[in-house]
Specification:
Two copies of one chain form a homodimer. With about 350 residues, the first copy, chain A, is an alpha+beta fold. Chain A is about 30% helix and about 20% strand. Chain A is built from nine helices and twelve strands. In chain A, helix 4 packs across helix 5. The first copy, chain A, starts with 12 loop residues before the first helix and ends in a 17-residue tail after the last strand. Chains A, B: Pathway: Cofactor biosynthesis; thiamine diphosphate biosynthesis; thiamine diphosphate from thiamine phosphate: step 1/1.
Chain lengths: ~350, ~350
């Protein structure tokens, strides 16, 4: 099949599967691979870790920006990050794929190549899947992992006085998306690539578990929102040190400036102090609320030698009691924040992503 | 939340999850349930079985016919059947759900109830999921199972002289769909229900494995097509005995007659011999090519006492060599059929479902 020109609707399901199968990654944990009613996967310690995540065209990616390869890469990585966040190593994936008939077959084989490239470093295999037609592309991936005999690292184990540590990039994906959205992609291809093909620090998850992490999660919806989830699950609060993200803030400064200029208007004589403040605020927003970098946030007992590439970014503090309202029972107290930045309630413009309220 | 009136777009993702979570089935194999980055599931014999299947609105179900409950039930059952077809018992499911904002919240909670009802008899739990907005409903389920220390029953193990046996209904789902399609649903609600909420013989899978089944698969795309898959995977041929399906053929006769009449025209004096022949042919087509009953087709060594509810429906024969073409190399031989019915190549009107060629 000359897949460069053929559309999905011009092929049969069996021909399409025959084109995809040889591209899928294989792995050592696969006991029975694709082609039967089910696959069989090894679970050496008598347990397996499982998570599922879905990507939907025009909700999670725009076809004019993301190739099939990019979508396959991202679908795999956002799932693999959920396994790493438990302290586990990925073993296997299954993929349900909904595709419209007007899609080129090359887009679909590109997706298979992107899945394979994302899985290659960890040795995870695609062991099964399902294919359907539909108006929009939907990629639903389920991923499985092996804890290697260790206990899973949950969100709920953080203890007061623990160090909060982060591994991975912060805000790069959000900055890359903003550049694309402002037609400024060529200005910083590295940030655009961070959005299109995120690179979560997958090996850091098992390393954190091995170093005694008390809690961990994957940052998919933004630092403030996900840190709040960890804090609430653990019954504690988290105070973040914005200065710990200086490297990311500096890295994003030029992109923030360009996006700010594109949003206009500036003073006629060039950017003034107000504009510079707005640029810094934008970079700060990307770092605090940008999603989809899929870095890992973990807590460790104070004094732990942090495994690479974790860096201390804050500390676990006691959950403050609610501030008493001035007007008695009829005037309920505002909830105390589960996350503070440099000791204060954060004033970011967004607090992460909600699918239904946007 | 008064879910009867609220639409998905009027709620937040967290509120929606809070409405769904209490409805999901729980199970004994769940070590860490929903709410963390991943779930953790027990795999007592050091392996797990996994399969995934997707349902897409207007491709696999029509919202005017299927309730949320029906879709949840069907999404679970078609996946559970893939686990049974390996000879395994289901332990856990994860569900990726894409829903449009105009859907009532009650539809979504109905789907959760349908999942739970379908999982109840086998004790399988929903241990995780993902939720996204999208224009069409998409339900992607991944299911896991436990082999209980036995080897998986593959499609490829059938041996010449084995008995071919079937468990479950044949053609009921196709007949129910045809009734709905002809606005004849009230004529036979049991057949309509068989389409809307299939009842695969899940316990028959492990029973077949325990009785020494040499090969097995789930009949999701029709008897002829799926029997052909088993035959090709095993390097054999299958001869089916249509008379073994007499019970199903009789059960479908009235529905076939009604659909045939609705398709008209009939002779002015009522159905004549040609019409009766057409009705019988339609029932035969439903039995041979109708999909989605999710019965199990298995092969057993001759003389095996078949476990309930399996019935012998044919036998495994040697794959015939291709019929030599009359014209030499330029006139390739037609492929010998992998499946025959009463010793002859089947002449059904359809041979099962292809998503992209319809």
């Amino acid at each position: 099949m000359n897949e460069g020109r053929v559309l999905v609707r011009e092929t049969s399901e069996e021909e399409l599967l025959a084109a995809i199968f040889p591209l899928l990654p294989t792995g050592a944990a696969t006991l029975v691979g694709p082609g039967d009613d089910s696959a069989v996967v090894s679970a050496p310690d008598g347990r397996f870790v499982v998570s599922t995540d879905v990507l939907v065209e025009r909700r999670h990616f725009r076809p004019e920006w993301s190739t099939g390869y990019d979508v396959g890469w991202r679908a795999a990585m956002q799932n693999l990050a959920d396994i790493a966040a438990m302290g586990a190593r990925p073993t296997s994936l299954v993929v349900s794929l909904v595709i419209p008939g007007h899609l080129p077959v090359a887009w679909v084989t590109g997706l298979a190549r992107g899945l394979a490239a994302a899985c290659a470093p960890s040795g995870a295999a695609v062991v099964g899947g399902d294919l359907s037609s539909g108006d929009d592309v939907v990629v639903a991936v389920t991923v499985h992992g092996d804890l290697g005999g260790r206990e899973p690292v949950l969100r709920s184990g953080a203890q007061v006085s623990d160090v909060v540590a982060h591994a991975g990039r912060r805000g790069w994906s959000a900055a890359g998306l903003a550049l694309l959205d402002h037609d400024l992609g060529p200005l910083d291809q590295e940030l655009v690539d961070a959005y299109l093909r995120p690179e979560p620090p997958l090996a850091a998850g098992p390393a954190a578990a091995g170093s005694g992490a008390t809690a961990m999660l994957d940052l998919s919806d933004g630092l403030l929102r996900d840190a709040g989830r960890l804090a609430r699950a653990s019954g504690v609060a988290v105070d973040l040190d914005l200065g710990a993200f200086r490297g990311d803030l500096d890295r994003l400064a030029v992109a923030a400036s360009a996006v700010r200029v594109a949003d206009g208007p500036l003073s006629a004589t060039g950017p003034g102090p107000a504009d510079l403040g707005a640029q810094a605020a934008l970079a700060r927003d990307w770092v605090l609320t940008g999603g989809e970098d899929h870095g890992l946030l973990a807590t460790f007992p104070a004094g732990t030698s942090l495994p690479e590439p974790f860096r201390a970014v804050g500390r676990v503090v006691a959950r403050p009691t609610s501030v008493p309202g001035a007007g008695g029972a009829a005037d309920p107290a505002p909830a105390a924040p589960a996350v503070t930045v440099d000791g204060e309630a954060p004033r970011a413009h967004g607090v992460g992503w909600d699918h239904f309220r946007g």
